[in-house]
Amino acid sequence: MDSNKDGGANPAEPSPKNPYKDPDDGRQRFLLELEFVQCLANPTYIHYLAQNRYLDDEAFIGYLKYLQYWQRPEYVKFIMYPHCLFFLELLQNANFRTAMAHPGNKELAHRQQFYLWKNYRNNRLKHILPRSLPEPAAPPPAPALPPAPAPVPASAVVPSALSPMQMTAASGPTLMKVDMRNAGADRRKRKKDG
After folding, report:
1. Spatial contact of 89 and 95, defined as CB atoms under 8 Å apart
2. What pLDDT is recorded for position 166?
C-alpha cells in the first residue's frame, strides 16, 4: 500500500507549490510553438486545419488567441515567415476560419501570397521611394595641380638604355600564349596527320 503513512509527500510527485517543473526551462515549448506559428504562413495548412474541424474547436481557437504573443517585438525576431503573423491575425475572425475550409479560398490566398512575393521588391521600392530622387549636387572643385616638370631635351635621352623591365623581357625566352580551348583540337589534328 502507501509506504508514506505519515502523510508526507512522495518525492517522485511534484510539490503543491510547483505542480509542474519544466525540464528544459521552456525551450521545447518555445520551439514547438514557433514551428506551429510559422506553419500558419501556408494557406494549404490552414485549409487542412479547417477541413479537419480544428478551427471549429473552442480550445483550439483559444490556443490561437494565446499565440498572438508572437507579435510582440521580443518574439517576432525569431519569426522567419512573417506571413504567419498575418494569417494568425486573420484566424481570430470566425468568417475567415469558415472560409478557409473551401478549396477555392485556399487557392485564392495561396495565389495572392505568391503575387506578393513575386512583386515584393517592386512593392517595397514604391513605398520606400515614393518621390523622384534628388538632383545630385555639383561636384566639388578639383584641387589645383602642381606645375608640370620641365621637358627633358632630346639629346639627354639615351636610346640604347633599357629599363629593368624591358631588359628581362628582351633577354629572356619569349613564351607563346596557349589557348586551352583549342589545345585538344590541335592535338587531335596532329594525331590524324601523323
Report:
1. no
2. 52
DSSP letters spanning 67-127: GGGGGSHHHHTT-S-THHHHHHHHTTSHHHHHHTTSHHHHHHHHHHHHHHHHTHHHHHHHH
Q: How many CB atoms lie within 10 A of CB 49?
A: 20
- pTM here is 0.52
Beta strands in 129-180, from DSSP E residues, in sequence order: none
pLDDT of 160-191, one tens digit each? Answer: 555 555 555 445 555 555 555 555 555 555 55
Average per-residue pLDDT for the chain:
75
> With contact defined as beta carbons under 8 Å apart, do 37 and 67 qualify?
yes
The pLDDT tens digits of the residues spanning 126-150 come to 666 656 656 777 776 766 666 666 6
Q: Are 87 and 41 in contact (CB under 8 A)?
A: yes
Cβ neighbours for 164, distance < 8 A, ≥ 6 positions apart: none
Cell numbers given for 22: 519544466
Q: Which three cell numbers stand for residue 176?
A: 607563346
- Measured between alpha carbons, how far is 181 from 177 in angstroms, rounded to an integer? 12
